[in-house]
Each structure stands twice: as C-alpha cells, then as structure tokens.
C-alpha cells in the first residue's frame, strides 16, 4: 500500500492484488449484502481502517452497480475508510 497526495490530503492506495482478491471474493462467494458489507469491513480492518456498517453496505451497493471495477472499488473504499 502506498500513500498518494490528493489535494494536500494523503489517500490510501490499496494494492491492486488486494482489490482484485476482494472483488473475486465478492463475486464468487454468493454473499448477501450484509455478508458482503462484513467482508468489506474485514478488508479495511486488516489494513488499519474502520468503517460503519451503513457505509460498508453503501459500498457494496455502489460496487455492484458499477460492475465492480478496481478503480471504482478504490474510490469507494477511499471514501469510507476511517483511520483507526
């Protein structure tokens, strides 16, 4: 993971391999939206971030609607990840 400056704010750039693994797990596991939100929450927690349950469910919805591109996942996770 590397930090990239964005308007004087450091933004977490998750590894492409990590995002790809998360995307595959979301697609292949047959999870409902609550379970998928838990998976997103776990993904972020393992990297030192927190996320509200509501925000995690919102990410699941937008990722599913976008076709789940890595770029979109990166943007959505950046929006909701809270430093712990």
Structural features, described:
With 84 residues, the protein is α+β, with helices and mostly antiparallel strands. The protein is built from four helices and four strands. The longest helix is centred in the C-terminal third of the chain and has 14 residues. It is 61% helix and 17% strand. The protein is globular. The chain has one domain. The strands form two sheets. The chain has a two-stranded antiparallel sheet. Strands 3-4 form a two-stranded antiparallel sheet. The two termini are 16 Å apart. Strand 1 and strand 2 form a beta hairpin.
**Overall average pLDDT:** 83
Order of helices and strands: EEHHEHHE
Q: Unreliable segments (pLDDT under 50, ≥5 consecutive)?
A: 5-9
Percentage of residues in strands: 15-25%
What level of helicity do the residues show?
A: 55-70%
Query: Order of strands across the biggest sheet?
Result: 1-2
Class based on secondary structure composition and strand pairing: alpha+beta
- Overall geometric form: globular
Q: What's the number of helices? A: 4
**Measured on Cα atoms, how large is the radius of gyration?**
12 Å
Q: How many domain modules? A: 1
What's the N-to-C terminus distance? Answer: 16 Å
User: Please, what is the oligomeric state?
Assistant: single chain
Number of strands: 4
Largest sheet: 2 strands, antiparallel
């Amino acid at each position: 993971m590397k930090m990239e400056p964005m308007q004087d704010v450091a933004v977490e750039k998750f590894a492409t391999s990590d995002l790809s693994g998360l995307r595959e797990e979301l697609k292949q596991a047959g999870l409902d939206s609550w379970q998928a939100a838990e998976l997103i929450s776990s993904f972020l927690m393992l990297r030192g971030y927190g996320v509200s349950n509501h925000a995690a469910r919102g990410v699941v919805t937008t990722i599913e609607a976008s076709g789940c591109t890595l770029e979109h996942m990166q943007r959505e996770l950046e929006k909701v990840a809270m430093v712990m």
